[in-house]
Automatic annotation (TrEMBL):
The keyword Coiled coil applies. It is found in: Cytoplasm, Cytoskeleton. This is Putative cell migration. It comes from the Eukaryota. One of its GO terms (biological process) is regulation of actin filament polymerization. Belongs to the ABP1 family. InterPro entries: ADF-H, ADF-H/Gelsolin-like_dom_sf, Drebrin-like_SH3, SH3-like_dom_sf, SH3_domain. The keyword Coiled coil applies. Residues 372-430 form the SH3 domain.
Amino acid sequence: MSVDLQKNRESILKAWKDVLNDKTATNWALFSYEGQSNVLKVVETGEDGISELAAELNSCKIMYAFLRVDNHETGIVKYAFINFQGEGAPTIRKGTCSKHVRDICNLLQGAHITIAATTEDDVEESRIMEKFKILSNDYKIKSNPQIVNDRQEVVGTNYSRIIPTREINPVERDEFWRKEEEEEKTRLQTEYDRQLAENSKFEEERRKREEKEFEKREKGVIAKENTPQLTNRTNEIKLQREKEIKEVIGNRVNTTKAIFMNNTSTTPTSTPTSPINTKSITFEQTQEQTPQVVTSEENLTPSSNEEKNIINELRAEVELEQQQQQQQLQLQQEQEQQQNQEPQYYQEEANGTNVYEDVNPDGNVATDLNEEPILRARALYDYQAADDTEISFDPGDIITHIDKIDEGWWQGLGPDNVYGLFPANYVALI
């Protein structure tokens, strides 16, 4: 709620005017509320200055004071408005009364400073006088001014008094501003022309881009109209060529199978007098197979680049399949040759014929003489595997099937039947 200044307005203004009047002895007036209402009243007035005012303040109430201070050094009279909110006053009351300060200040006008106080110490004379000294208009009046006797120097003949109306030429001034306006107009016109040129360039680029896109779309429509006929013709040619190539591949596979079956059925059971030269057989088979492929290729005369590409791809597939078949055939022939060349022991019969034995006197199957011996080593130190690719062993363990893949690391079969890597300097060959 707002403060009520109308009920006791006359007494409040009378006390305020007594403080402002230098002819009266009253130099302070104290105001407060009537009970818990918002009606402002005059509490007390006094003539003994700040100390007397501080004694009248109540720490449990919210009070206002208007104070006159006479500065004996400067001779200037200063006025202060004090907003006192006691420490013991209710908090809610403080918040409500804080909104009344502006209205009370508008009524009690003339204060040079406003002081917010909560205790009596905030209203000490020294603090209030210190705040008055901060004011910029604090100067001495009663002290005698120092008379400065400055002798005026004689003005020389070259001195001329400055006349502003003569020094400032209105014509030149108007000319200056006219040039400024022309430059501004020129700048604006240049900016407008530049913006217009950029817009025209952008529109031209957009128009060209749209024309190109339209031409591309038109070409695409024409190409789509002509594509079905060309596609049907290409598909027919492609299917025909694939059919012919498949027939050629089928003939080559049947021929290869026949050669393989013939070689298998005619293989002698006895030891051959001379080793079979698989390279010559492969070369002869290649010579026999080549004419048919060439003959087939002669019949496949491409009529376009696309047909050539199809034939080249099919030719590569045929050659790859032939190479795989030849490699399988060569591998089988080598295996049969190794089986026929195993060492056999002879026994002399009465008729001078040789009888072959497939086993040696010890009852063990004969091994290939060209087979490399199995490397074995004995562990000299203890070694624990760092990961799954290594093996662990103790001193004295035997490691077999060793492969020297590196100078520092070998791989072999450990004592726990695990095959992995191990350091070469931890073992000794046996």
